[in-house]
Amino acid sequence: MWTTREFARERGFTLIELLAVIGIVAILVALLLPAVQAARETSRRAQCANNLKQIGLALNLYQDSCGCLPPGRFNTYDPRDLPALPSCPLTIEKSFLVMILPYVEQAPLYNSINQSVNIFGVENRSAFAISVNTYFCPDDGGSGVPRGMDMSELSRYGWAGAGERLNAVFTSYAGNIGSLLADALPNPGSGCRVAACARSQSNGCLCDVAPISYAAITDGLSQTIVVEEHATATLYQWDDTVYTRYGWYFAGNWGDTLVSNFYPMNQYRKSERPVPAAPASLHPGGMNLLCADGSVRFVKDTVESWAFDAGAGDPAGSEQTRPDGCWTGLPSPGVWQKLATRNGGEILGADSF
Question: Model-level pTM?
């Protein structure tokens, strides 16, 4: 018969056996962890795609109701902000995301906004910090919660006092203004006139040329981008000011809710020059894109783009803007730029992107 002490000694692990078990567990964890992380990323990417589908449905309902898509950005017509020429206000105002709020089940939030005054006015600041789940990607953690916003631009135009602090919700999505940073809004500097070529170069679906209906998207609804990812967390690598100045869901400025395929996809991974108006995603290998037909595609960030100067952060051509706002000297467009135009006449095969 074994004594109790002998039985306990017989049942115990040796040090070598214990180390072997720990090693096996560590190997299993190392093998399992990437699979778990990949599954989580797949889930986050799917949620992001679903958000874009909801935005696409909202744009379709807006078009059914109004007969056209919303402009990418709006001029302000607040009497407190108008210069001598009332048709040429100085500041850009609300975003297209504000205009589709009723169609993403946010009618109360839309109704709380005073549409007759500037979105930055004190009357509308209660809307700044209200989160809309559809407007942020799970991978872009800083966008869905209120955080401090840079007040320098508001102070510059007299919409905020010195030392004033406000929180805002940022968005992970932005409308596509086209293949160029084309400014086709009237302004006092141009005498309220917009050159014809500037209008033609405003070639996106959510741009300065309005109204645009689905019928005006002659390149094909399934081959034209309407909304792209614009992860604000990618701006944090530049500095805190950039991170807090761009991406406000309610503002219609470039870098807030408008981006351009003038820059390659995920430009922040390819250049050290900050460009807030460039499409950006935190999904590995590419980004989700909403097309005009309502479909969402995941396009790899190796998609063909025109030549790019990583050092300068701009296209590698002799491009420049003339005094009338028109671009010249542009390099030959790639698939990425062709996807951004609504009426460029390009032919893209199914295997192009």
Answer: 0.85
